[in-house]
Amino acid sequence: MSITNPALLLAGAVVVALNAYVVLAGADFGGGVWDLFATGPRRDRQRDLIAHAIGPVWEANHVWLILVVVLLFTCFPPVFIRIAIALHIPIALVLLGIVLRGSAFTFRSYGGDDAPTQRRWGRVFAIASLVTPLLLGVAVGTIAAGRVRLPVGTGFIEDFVAPWLSLFSASVGVLTLALFAFLAAVYLTLEAGDPSLQEDFRRRALGAGVAVFVAAMVTLGLAWREAPLVWHGLVTAPRAVPVHLLTGASATLALWALWTRKYRLARSAAVAQITLILWGWALAQFPWLIPPSLGIAEAAAPAVTLKLTLGALAVGAAVLFPSLYYLFKVFKSPPR
Amino acid sequence: MTDLLAARAQMALSLGFHILFAVVGIGMPLLMVIAERRWLSTQDPIDLELAKRWCKGTAILFAVGAVSGTVLSFELGLLWPGFMEVAGPIIGMPFSLEGFAFFTEAIFLGIYLYGWDRISPRAHLWAGILVAVSGAISGVFVVIANAWMNTPAGFDLVDGLPANIDPVRAIFNPAALQQTLHMTLAAYAATGFAVAGIHALLLLRDPLNAFHRRALIIGVLVGAPAALLQPLSGDLSARNVAEYQPAKLAAMEALFTTQTGAPLVIGGLPDMETGTVRFGLEIPYGLSLLAHHDPRATVQGLDSIPRADWPHVPTVHLAFQIMVGVGTLLALVALWSLAVLLRGQELAARPLLLKAIAGCAPLGFLAIEAGWTVTEVGRQPWIIHGVLRTSQAVTPMPGLVFTLLGFTLLYLFLGCVVAWLLYAQILRSPRHQEWQRVSSPRRA
Predict the structure, then answer these.
(1) Could you give the CA distance from residue B201 to residue A133 in angstroms, rounded to a whole number?
(2) Taken in order A246, A258, A188, A332, is the CA torsion positive or negative?
(3) Binding-face residues of B in 93-112 toward A, CB within 8 A
(4) How far is Cα A64 from Cα B152, in angstroms, rounded to an integer?
(5) Tens digits of residue pLDDT in B155-167
(6) Using an 8 Å Cβ cutoff, are A138 and A170 in contact?
(7) ipTM at complex level
(8) How many CB atoms lie under 10 A from the CB of residue B274?
(9) pTM of the model as a whole
């Protein structure tokens, strides 16, 4: 498949959009997790910082997921359909989480000042932020493990529950959650104005970084037993090795930078780490979109649709990237 | 309840819930921008206060709209995989474009909501204008996709499968212009009248309040022109439906037999068994006149459609009556209000008009729900008119009644919370602290 093949480019665009979603919206979910685990004397200030960091950007960050969905159903309809059928239950729960997370966050921000109400919405926001990444990870793990298949009619459990109910899928869920929490804590070290708050999130980032390492190792171990496709793609395939080395290097760099309080470097390294993990997965299952049966070429929509969508992406990107740049410049530039 | 019915109910619930917030997301930014633009030129604090308070309401409604819209985009696959398999490559384009419009809307809304003291007033106004424009555009793209379901175009059917796909022709399908025009006007009419109506109600209690007077005028300026144009746009839509979707038109008008010089039936209870309408008021030649602008034109009745392909006539007919009745009422109140404004008189000085406008507050939304019922129930049993049946498109996943139950409870709960928050926000008299919280989101 040539590098300028429209289907290949669009499959790449799906991964790019997913990458942006994970790096941006992932941290918003992670922020919710740290809201749930806010502790110590600066508990309320931690929560304020998180709300302040998420507020202006979470809705825009969320749109990356919509873009992933739209690209899938326009350009690779069979992929979207198989995922929607086999993963109906976890996806319905993800939607529940997305709805509750977003609305509760907004209700807390705009719902008046009385403390008990604020706490209740805060709790809903935080729990939804914890559960949603777990389930998203479960969905990804199920796809990667090659367990998404069309229903064969043997029964409800076999067709609609068994595919995603596995230790491997669960471990990918935990890994996703740990990554999002890690990313959020790293970002928050830079958002925090004063050193004590910065230290709070530095410690959290270090803890989450260790959790990511453990979750990644467990996932890899389970892959060996439960998801041979992933194991092969990640470990024995020759193209896997450089990606692994880079991922390991950026993970180590992120932790070292946190340890030595080089927060900007830590942020870059953490973003590189999660990006490499995502692309590592994508390359591991290339050219399958749904391993082991549905590849990029077979799943692709007719050429005219692909070409027009590429055109739409180009036009859209020309509008999107300057706007996003402006958004982050306004809200994420260093305090004046 | 069968799984098909549960899936249809869940889709209806999700769409019926989301449309309320989507409409506000299109209409409210225009109101905010008008208020803020006035403030920039007049420096009148009332205008700034209005912009900030509307901004706060919009923040709540937009968030719920964004997440409930996400639910819909997934439900296309969760509930209707058979539909997406056929429709995705043909009509995915407007969804992709909508994605970018929505991106723009979300980005600049974030800037608008949280950027009051971070960017210049002029930049802030432009952010609001971009929210208003991209909100309207994203609505247009979604409605284009729906119009395609009603009047599919841009492909050939070869052995029951689409071939020779042309997504551009699919975008410019025969109903696209009529439906997008009708829905966009509806969004401005509903939002404008909702805001005007609420402030009219408050003015009835507190007639001299300058804040409510200003809000009323801006609401009327947005809602009334749209409400006045809506009957014309409805006429375009009706003639388009008559041409391309005869079964839907026949169900809307409860016309069971094909007739030349068909009468218009107002009200009444259609009986699908006997093919008659009880208690309806008949206006001779009315339907031929409306559908074809010719009193002697022949209008296709349901007898020209196989019985298995009829939509549920009473539902469609009733919903259509509600939409048209409410639309007419809004147009009349719009005419009245604009006549008063054009003569340079105060709306607030006329209690009867205030009462009429206050009564209109929820009506635009009622008309929108009724209109979507007409277009969706009226297309049944097809999900893509004449191409794919809804029953062929539904997911094989069983037990859908449980997800329906879950989403029903969730949306009921959210609906109550949002209603309560808006109620609390509207009825509380403007307090200075509130604007400050909007302008600096770091909570005290």
Answers:
(1) 45
(2) negative
(3) 93, 95-100, 102-104, 106-111
(4) 29
(5) 998 887 888 999 9
(6) yes
(7) 0.90
(8) 9
(9) 0.91
